[in-house]
Amino acid sequence: MKFHIPQKVNYIIKELNRHGFEAYAVGGCVRDMVLGRTPQDWDITTSATPHEVKKIFRRTVDTGIEHGTVTVLIEKEHFEVTTYRIDGEYEDGRHPKQVSFTSSLKEDLKRRDFTINAMAYNEAEGFVDLFGGLEDIKAGLIRCVGSAEERFDEDALRILRAVRFSAQLGFDIEADTMRAIRAKAQNLENISAERIREELSKLLLSEHTDRLRILYESGISRVILPELDKMMKTAQNNIHHIYSVGEHTIKTVTEVASPRAARAFDEKERLILKWTMLLHDVEKPGTKSIGKDGQDHFYGHGERGAITARRVLKRLKFDNYTLDRIEHLIRWHSHRFVLTPEGMRRAVSMIGKEHMELLFEVMRADISAKNPQLADQMYQMLEAARRLYAEMLSRGDCVSLKELNLKGKDLIEAGLKPGKRIGEILNRLLEEVITRPELNDKVALMEIAKKIIADEKPDDSSGN
Question: What secondary structure, in 3-state letters, does 288-317 show?
Answer without folding.
Answer: CEECCCCCEECCCHHHHHHHHHHHHHHHCC
